[in-house]
Amino acid sequence: QTNHQTPNPIIKMATIALIKEAILALKDRTGSSIPAINKWIENEKKVALPAKHVMKAALKKGVESGDLVMVKASYKLSPEAKKKLTAPPKKKAAPKKVRGCGRLGTVTLHFHLSSQ
Question: Which residues lie below 8 Å from residue 97, measured CB to CB, with a gap of 6+?
Answer without folding.
Answer: none
